[in-house]
Every structure is written in C-alpha cells, then in structure tokens.
Amino acid sequence: MPYKPTGFSSHDHDGCIAQGMQAAEAFCAAKGLQLTPVRRRTLEILLQAHEAMGAYDVLARLSQDGFGDKPPVAYRALAFLQDHGFVHRIERLNAFVACARPGADHDPAFMICRSCGKVAESELSGSGLTASARESGFVIEQTVIEAEGLCPGCQP
Q1: Are residue 88 and residue 23 in the same domain, yes or no?
Q2: Residue 123, domain CATH
Q3: Alpha carbons 89 and 20: distance in angstroms, whole number
Q4: CA–CA separation, 121 and 37 (whole Å)
Q5: What is the pLDDT of residues 104-122, one digit of tens each?
Q6: Which of 89, 91, 103, 124 supports an S-S bond with 107, CB 3.0-4.6 Å?
Q7: Are residues 92 and 30 in the same domain?
Q8: Nearest to 72 by CA among 82, 86, 85, 58
Q9: Inter-axis angle of helices 37-49 and 13-31, nearest 10
Q10: Is residue 82 domain-shared with residue 17, that is, in the same domain?
Q11: 124 exposed, middle or buried (CB, 10 Å; 0-12, 13-18, 19+)?
C-alpha cells in the first residue's frame, strides 16, 4: 500500500506524535542506545511542530525547557536523531523535520510549500531513479529529493 503524505492534510496529530516517540523508544531499547532527556525533547519538539525547524529554533525551545542555550545541545541531539532515522535534514531550508515513517525502511522525498513553508514527506520507492540506478549498476547509498511548489492550502 503506497504511503500517503500527511504534511498537507489533517490527520491524527496526537497519534502521529505518540507513534514517533514509541518508535524511537523501542529502537533505542532494542539497540542499547540512550534516548536522553534532551534527545527525547528534541524529537518531541519536531513531532509537535510538524514542520521543518532550524537548529536554533529547536535550541530556543530546548533552552525554554531548561536544557541549556549552547548550540552543541541542539546539534548533538539532532545528529543522534538524524543518524538513527528519526529526523531528516531538509537541505533547501537548512532545517530539520521529524520522520513521518519512523522505523520504516524507506527513501524519503520532501515536498516544500514555497508559500507557507510546510513540508510533507513522501516515499521515493518505485521511482525512476531507483530503476535507472539498478540498470546502470549504480548502488544508491543516500538520496536527498526535495521538490518545491504550492501545497493545497496555498494554491489559488
């Protein structure tokens, strides 16, 4: 069943947050990794925002919550979460967004609304890029696909 992006439509936001946190907790427990309080709060911030946030925006929220105001606080937490697939970096925006499919093996692609800035995660699997790479013998190790346009709410 194809994945339907939720970034531009209404959905069970509380369930989405709970699912993201449960996936991170289960993954860390299974791998013997620490989901420290600052890592946990960083993930919660991104899941609650449901939009791309810059590291300094995350840092400001962490600082309000008493986790400190030095950039390494946010950058280390974001690096951990990105390394383990719980957040993605949106290159075009120099920002981070919580993964919409935590724990799923997938190649994400992002749709960025140039008007409101909302970001929706989609799935790249089955794309022509995958087929072309396979045919040419190329092994894709990482993809960063970002499309800019207008979301349904910003279209005339």
Answers
A1: yes
A2: 3.30.1490.190
A3: 16
A4: 26
A5: 777 788 999 999 888 888 8
A6: 124
A7: yes
A8: 58
A9: 150
A10: yes
A11: middle
- 135 and 66 part of one domain: no
| Interatomic CA distance for residues 94 and 120, integer angstroms | 15
What is the mean predicted confidence (pLDDT) over 28-40? Answer: 96
Predicted model pTM: 0.85
Q: What is the pLDDT of residue 1?
A: 42
Compute the average pLDDT of residues 128-156.
86
Left, alpha or beta for 103 (phi > 0: left; psi -120 to 50: alpha)? Answer: left
- DSSP H helical ranges for 8-70: 13-31, 37-49, 55-64
Q: Are residues 115 and 88 in the same domain?
A: no
In a domain, 8, yes or no: no
Express each pLDDT in 55-65 by its tens digit: 999 999 999 99
Task: Give yes or no: residues 123 and 59 share one domain.
Answer: no
Q: Report whether pLDDT(5) > 70.
A: no
Neighbours of 7 (CB within 10 A): 20
